[in-house]
Specification:
alpha+beta, 10-stranded mixed sheet, 9-stranded antiparallel sheet, 38 strands, globular
Length: 702
């Protein structure tokens, strides 16, 4: 027996249409599907419905559609299948976000329909190997997965429609029903699976499902022996069980893109970076919320404000704002939502910190900054980047020194804007420091011509080193990194790091200039800058830094495009041949993937990844609030980070233009990544919280 079910994916965000078009057109499409179902009372269907916008829109312009859905649920002809609250990609959430949006979706769907099924269809079919355990923790009992998606990883399923078990990386198993679009001849798929029995869902976007085509499918299925219509939950209950199946990160959009269609174009990366900034601000606000609660303060207003920030964050993560060729206003709406999430969290954080701490303003000529560790672990010694601003000329670049809670620490400028007299107006300093868990510390900047760092640094235009690592440069790019404690060398031949930039129609040329731009006089870091004029309309500026006493190379790349071009950019490519193992974080879980052979894959990462080839490994951690890193491109002999490319050439938002910067720490590993390595990576991702304390001797704006 083959059980067949229909499923309609209902989404009034829809990337390609304006809100006016959605409100005027879509309700009639839904009415057409309801009419099709009433005309075929033996046919059963699931409906997965976006909750944040679609339900409010339908309540306002088409309450009859919701009435029809409720009637079908009551009669047992329909069931409500779960999905993400705002049709964000389930695979891209932190665990906390995933649990929050799931709770919001379940509550809204139960409010409207009275009950929901225990089945789940992820927006865009988004999957990663820890999704089964995340869903099971929330009470989900089965999944809908694409027939093509699972077939990509296990060819045996082409003629096997039994209810198989998708097996997560931690061993968690969930039953799944395969689905196929009405456009891809589901009748033929049913015929292929007839021998073993099982079930199939015919799943379409409700906005493109054609009732005439569906009627032909139903008539064909009625003419077949041993075919019966059923709900997806009934398929799981009545079908024979199949085999465990393991699949990698994927969506229904298979091929070289996998998740890349929602991660890879320049605007996608801009939005994901704003998303990371908002995540950081929310984490800081929640840290101050805990402090204020412990102090016995009333925090009701700020608690609501933080929840509202999380809500806007989830709205900004809606996949119709990303690279599925959305309209310009959808992309800009995503930016608005993510920036609002940051703003709300910043307000809550500032108010809570003002309520909680008593600030002693510094004396004139001294600048103090409160540093606080909002991470759930001690911060290991790390290069901490701190933005500074001065109302008047207090310090000159060669006079900056720092103490952390009274103890001298290494401190130097990374960037600076100066007053006419040469004193610092604003800029970014770096301090090599550490903080305990839940700790606040006071960083004091004052005038001193004496270097405050160590003296283990060496630099030339072909080498950077400290007492722990040595980096050899060729042609302005790192050719190898040597761990001086173990003697292990990463790279060499071919060179460890390469870069690629391709602008369609632009004339290629290559001109490289290499110079030492910081010799470590302050005892904090050394820096080599390579400037690459790669084409007539592009410029790449790379800055490579080694810090005193730290086992990492910092790679900062600024790409400038003069004009707008379809193309691609790969600013950080590690040449490490397969077989290799890649560690990453998925939904708060540590994932380990072995890549041996086969085609190119795009693997999800959450702003850091550790890559092993043979006996050597490197951890790459992004400064994700400068440029987020959400996937890595794993090809035959290389792993590419921060890759951006044009998918839809007629979409101006996907053209390479303007200027952007990527920044990453590259850390040699001794064996598998340790907890200390991962802590350093997470701190590099988000930094620490800062509160500048300013001496006011006159009104701020005078």
């Amino acid at each position: 027996m083959i059980f067949v079910n229909f499923n309609f994916h209902v989404n009034m965000w829809y990337a390609e249409y304006t809100d006016e078009q959605v409100l005027r057109w879509f309700p009639n499409l839904y009415r057409g599907l309801l009419e099709f179902m009433w005309e075929n009372p033996d046919v059963k269907a699931g409906w997965d419905i976006e909750s944040s916008r679609t339900i409010p829109f339908l309540e306002r312009v088409a309450p009859d559609v919701l009435d029809g859905l409720r009637e079908g649920v009551k009669k047992g002809q329909f069931e409500i299948i779960l999905d993400t609250w705002s049709f964000s990609l389930a695979s891209m959430h932190t665990w906390e976000e995933f649990a929050l949006q799931h709770d919001m979706a379940v509550k809204e769907l139960k409010r409207v329909f009275g009950r929901v099924s225990s089945g789940y269809f992820a927006q865009e079919g988004a999957y990663h190997p820890f999704l089964p355990s995340m869903l099971k923790r929330l009470g989900v009992e089965f999944l809908l997965l694409s027939y093509l998606q699972v077939g990509e990883f296990d060819r045996r399923l082409a003629r096997d429609l039994r209810v198989h078990l998708v097996k997560g990386e931690d061993g968690t198993e969930l039953p799944f029903v395969m689905h196929v679009s009405s456009l891809l001849d589901p009748v033929d798929v049913v015929k292929k699976g007839a021998e073993l029995g099982g079930g199939l869902t015919v799943l379409d976007d409700a906005e493109i499902a054609n009732p005439s085509r569906l009627t032909l499918i139903v008539e064909s299925l009625r003419g077949m022996e041993n075919v019966k219509f059923a709900l997806a939950s009934e398929i799981v209950e009545k079908s024979p069980r199949g085999i465990p199946v393991s699949i990698l990160d994927s969506t229904w959009a298979l091929g070289v893109y996998d998740h890349g269609m929602w991660l890879r174009d320049p605007w996608d990366q801009h939005l994901w970076t704003l998303n990371e900034v908002a995540r950081r601000e929310i984490a800081k606000a929640e840290w101050w919320l805990r402090r204020a609660r412990k102090a016995g303060l009333n925090v009701d207003v700020e608690e609501r404000e933080i929840h509202e920030a999380k809500r806007w964050l989830l709205l900004g993560q809606n996949s119709d704002k990303f690279g599925w060729n959305p309209r310009a206003e959808k992309r800009i709406q995503g930016e608005y939502e993510l920036r609002l999430a940051s703003e709300l969290a910043q307000v809550a954080s500032t108010v809570l910190s003002e309520k909680t701490l008593k600030f002693d303003r510094p004396t004139e000529g001294v600048r103090q900054i409160i540093l606080y560790n909002f991470h759930a672990f001690p911060v290991p010694p790390s290069p901490l980047r701190i933005d500074v601003e001065f109302d008047s000329g207090i310090l000159k670049p060669d006079e900056v020194s720092a103490t952390l809670d009274g103890k001298q620490v290494g401190c130097d400028l990374l960037t600076a804007r100066l007053f006419p007299d040469g004193a610092i107006k604003s800029g970014t300093i770096t301090v090599i420091g550490s903080l305990g868990a839940e700790e606040t510390s006071t960083l004091t900047l004052k005038r001193s011509s004496t270097p405050s760092g160590r003296t283990d640094l060496h630099v030339s235009d072909s080498e950077l080193s400290n007492s722990l690592i040595r980096v050899r440069l060729e042609g302005g790019l790192p050719a190898s990194i040597t761990d001086l404690k173990t003697g292990a060398t990463y790279g060499g031949e071919p060179p460890l790091i390469t870069q690629r930039l391709k602008l369609e129609g632009d004339k290629q040329e290559e001109e490289v200039k290499v110079e030492v731009t910081n010799r470590g006089e302050r005892g904090v870091y050394v820096e080599v800058t390579s400037t690459v004029k790669q084409s007539a309309h592009s410029l790449i500026v790379n800055k490579y830094r080694v810090y005193s006493g730290l086992p990492l190379l910092e790679a900062e790349t600024r790409i400038s495009i003069f004009g707008k071009f379809p193309g691609s950019a790969e600013p950080l490519v590690l040449n490490l041949p397969r077989p290799r193992t890649i560690w990453r974080e998925l939904g708060g879980n540590l994932s380990k993937v072995r890549m041996e052979k086969g085609r190119q894959r795009l693997l999800l990462v959450n702003d850091w990844a550790a890559v092993y080839s043979g006996e050597v490994g490197l951890l790459v951690a992004a400064d994700c609030c400068t440029r987020a890193m959400k996937d890595v491109k794993d090809a035959k002999n290389e792993v590419s980070f921060f890759t951006t490319e044009t998918t839809f050439k007629d979409n101006q938002f996907e053209h390479l233009s303007g200027e952007w910067t990527t920044r990453a720490a590259i850390i040699p590993l001794r064996g598998e990544p340790t907890s200390e390595d991962l802590k350093r990576a997470k701190v590099y991702n988000y930094g620490v919280g800062t509160i500048p304390l300013i001496h006011f001797d006159k009104p701020r704006l005078s």
